[in-house]
Amino acid sequence: MTLAWSKTPAILAPAILLFTSLTTPVFALQPLATFVEAAQKVSPESREASARLEQRQAEEGTATWRLLPTLSINGRYTRNQYNLEFQVPGSTEPKPFMPYNQFDASVVLSVPLIHVAAWQQKKSSSAWQDHATLAQAAVAQDLTARVAERYYQLLGAVALVQAARHALTTSQENLRIATDRVKNGAATTFDLELSQADTARAEQDVATAELSETIARRMLQSISGVTPAAEVQFVEDDLRQEADVAHFIHQAQSSPAKKAARAATEASEAQTKIARAAWYPTVTGVAQETFTNATALVGHASYYQFMINAAWKFDGTNLSNDEASRAQARVAQAQEETNARNIDEAIFGAHAQVHAGIKKARAAREQEKAAQRAVDIATQQYQAGVVTQTEVLAAQQAAFSAQVGRIQAVTDLAYARTLLRILSSETWSDRVGE
After folding, report:
1. Residue 39 lies in a domain
2. What is the C-alpha to C-alpha distance for residues 60 and 123, in angstroms, rounded to an integer?
3. Is 373 a member of any domain?
4. pLDDT averaged over every residue in the chain
5. How far apart are CA 141 and CA 50, in angstroms?
6. How far is the C-alpha of 192 from the C-alpha of 393, rounded, in Å?
7. Is 60 exceeded by the pLDDT of residue 23?
8. Minimal CA–CA distance to 19: which of 166, 157, 150?
9. Sorting pLDDT into bands at 50, 70 and 90, what band is 71?
10. 376, 384 in Cβ contact below 8 A?
11. Cβ(3)–Cβ(160) under 8 Å?
12. Residue 186 pLDDT more than 90?
């Protein structure tokens, strides 16, 4: 028998059917949620999203501080070559103008009165912080879908191993029967050679299926950091129809991915206002207390000053910055539209896959039942001498192919159901029959 399985990794799920021919007791694999939760903690994508959020929070704090008063303390020591003194009117002694050792200190309080660019920077930083929060949720959503895909690939691979091993057992039994019949003169060596070839082919099928399971286990463990349990318990899919695709597309409007894209557009639009605000003047209030031992000019060791500083800068780079920020906003808008379209298309595709998968799974079940009945009939007729062993082996190979098709059809359907809910931000479950 040949293992009829696509070279492209199949979308596999825990909705694999209980095969009547498998009698080995099995134990349930950890729930999908276990792997998803673990992946959220260890994945580089999640750590990057968390670090990005911390960065945006720090930037928002920086923008906030720029709107608040600042206090600075300055001190200076100067060694002068000459000691200069002036006679200050009203004083009986000369006052130092430039002493040998001059000490100066000041305490300056600056209060931004008008700073439009700083105000817009604060709004922009808050918008980018909101985007980082939603982007973190969008990363988690994408990671959930990727973990689910690997989870289902493992479960399907386990089902294939069990099916291939059962087929190998059947081939070995055929070989035993053929050997006995040749010894008794009831069959030719042709039958024996044919059974040996079929057994060797079944052994290859088992090796191929076991390789798929090994790789699938490694991939799931790599993305989640959790070692999958050795055995799997399969769940029957009830083949129920899903709600209309419009329902899921509507639900997806509140998905983290779409929200993050909208937030990116809003943040980019806020960024354009910063560039325009660079044309506005800035007004700053300053209160300064000065301490010095060069008291000739003012006659006091300390004195205060209140000032209002206005600055208005005309810089041609503001034009380019404004154009660049407007272009970036248009880029963000286009990306938001692309993102929304891709999500809607993915939902449409998953919904269509569910619809087709229900038909395929139902037909695959009927195909497997019919193929198994054909095996039973061929076996009985072979024992009665009505058909040849070639026909029996052909029937068994067809039954195995039908079983493999049944696994893939049902697991494709199960993953499509799960993906449909992940994309539309609805509650998902790996128990697809519930």
Report:
1. yes
2. 9
3. yes
4. 86
5. 14
6. 12
7. no
8. 166
9. very high
10. no
11. yes
12. no
Residue 73 has pLDDT above 90, yes or no: yes
Inter-residue contact 152 to 12 (CB < 8 Å): yes
DSSP H helices, 252-316, are 256-277
Domain count, the chain: 2
> What percent of the chain stands above pLDDT 90?
55
Phi, psi (rounded to 5 degrees) for 279: -80, -15
**Inside any domain, residue 432:** no
Q: Is the pLDDT of residue 27 over 60?
A: no
Q: Are 224 and 147 in contact (CB under 8 A)?
A: yes
CB 414, CB 399: distance < 8 Å: no
Q: What pLDDT digit, counting tens, does each position of 235-271 carry?
A: 667 888 999 999 999 999 988 999 999 999 999 998 8
Residue 285's alpha-carbon distances to 115, 117, 309, in angstroms, are 11, 17, 6
> Which of 10, 3, 8 lies closest to 360, judged by CA?
10
Whether residue 429 lies inside any domain: the answer is no
List, for residues 86-128, the tens digit of each pLDDT value. Answer: 877 777 788 888 899 999 999 999 999 999 989 999 999 999 9
Pairing of strands 70-79, 101-114: antiparallel
Extract the tokens encoding 47. 């750590």
Residue 211 has pLDDT above 50, yes or no: yes
| Placement of tokens 């506005």 in the chain | 280
Q: Give the residue from 271, 297, 313 where a domain finishes.
A: 313
Hey, what are 232's tokens? 């799997």
pLDDT given for residue 181 in this prediction: 81
pLDDT score recorded for residue 354: 93
Other C-beta atoms closer than 10 Å to the C-beta of 173 total 12
Check if the beta carbon of residue 366 is closer than 8 Å to that of residue 403.
Answer: no
Q: How many alpha carbons fall within 13 Å on the CB side of residue 29?
A: 30
Same domain, 143 and 284: no
Residues 306, 260 within the same domain: no
Nearest to 360 by CA among 413, 434, 294, 425: 413
The set of residues, in sequence order, having a beta carbon less than 8 Å from that of 319 and lying 6+ positions away, is none
Q: Which amino acid is at 368?
A: E
Residue 294 belongs to what domain range? Answer: 69-114+280-313
Number of neighbouring beta carbons within 10 Å of residue 316:
7
Last residue of a domain, one of 313, 338, 356: 313
Query: What pLDDT, on the 0 to 100 scale, is given for residue 431?
Result: 52
